[in-house]
Structures are given as C-alpha cells and as structure tokens.
Design brief:
Blueprint (H helix, E strand, L loop, with lengths): L2 H28 L7 H33 L3 H33 L9 H24 L1
Protein name: DUF4149 domain-containing protein
Keywords: Membrane, Transmembrane, Transmembrane helix
Organism: Nocardioides daedukensis
C-alpha cells in the first residue's frame, strides 16, 4: 500500500469515527443529560456540528488529494465521491434550514420540529455507508 493510500485510509476511518461518535452517540445523548434544555442542546449542537463539518471538509479534501496522488481506482473515487456529495448536501442544502429553526428556538419562538433533521440523518447514514465502502476499497 502506498503512503498516499495509507493516508487516505486513515483520513477515511477518522472521518467515519467522528461521524459515528458525534452524530449517533453525542447528539442524541446530550438531550438526555440532566439540566440540558432544548435551547441549550441546540446551542451545543450548533457548535459541535459546525466544528464537525469543518473537519469533515478538511478530511474530504485530504482524501481527494491522496486519491489523485495514488491514482486510485474508479470504484474508490465513486465511493469517496458519494460521501463527499452527502457532506456537501448536508452543509449547503440542509444545514441552513436547521440553522433557521435553531435561531428561532434560541430566540424564544415555538418553532415546529423540522423535517430537515430527518433529511440530515438520512444523508448521514448514506455518508457512513459510503465511508465504510471507501475504507474497505482502500484496504483491498
């Protein structure tokens, strides 16, 4: 395995681990902690997901650079592209709506639950699957 493939593999699994830890463990559990109100949880979530998405974008860029250097197979490119497109859809299409709802709740408004959250979760699941496939293809 070339060093570019090794770095791409590491970036892929670090990205996967971050998404699993934050999206599927931290995010749902924070609302169960004693004293965490909906506005407080949303405020924390906004900070955490902004940081997560920024790191994800850096890892995605790193993966692309490594795949170019390593001259990766088409199948690896496709799997990585799916993960990256899911991330871009989350950041560019879904998160603005979620941000508007969070802003409304933090301003004291009684904002209805957003269906955009379900879209974000669906994209997150697709991204996780794509990252698993990318990592497996990089290892094979």
């Amino acid at each position: 395995m070339s060093s570019a493939f090794a770095v791409a593999t590491a970036f892929t699994f670090v990205w996967l681990g971050m998404v699993l830890a934050i999206s599927f463990i931290e995010a749902p559990l924070k609302f169960r902690a004693p004293g965490v109100t909906i506005p407080l949880g949303l405020g924390i979530g906004r900070l955490v997901f902004r940081a997560l998405n920024a790191v994800e974008l850096l890892l995605a860029a790193g993966i692309v650079v490594c795949l170019v250097v390593a001259e990766a197979r088409t199948s690896v490119w496709i799997a990585a592209a799916v993960a990256i497109v899911m991330l871009l859809a989350q950041v560019g299409l879904v998160r603005p709506g979620l941000t508007r709802r969070t802003n409304a709740v933090l301003a004291g408004e009684d904002a209805p639950r957003s269906k955009a959250h379900l879209v974000y979760v669906a994209l997150e699941l697709a991204k996780v699957a794509a990252l698993v496939v990318t990592g497996v293809l990089l290892l094979s």
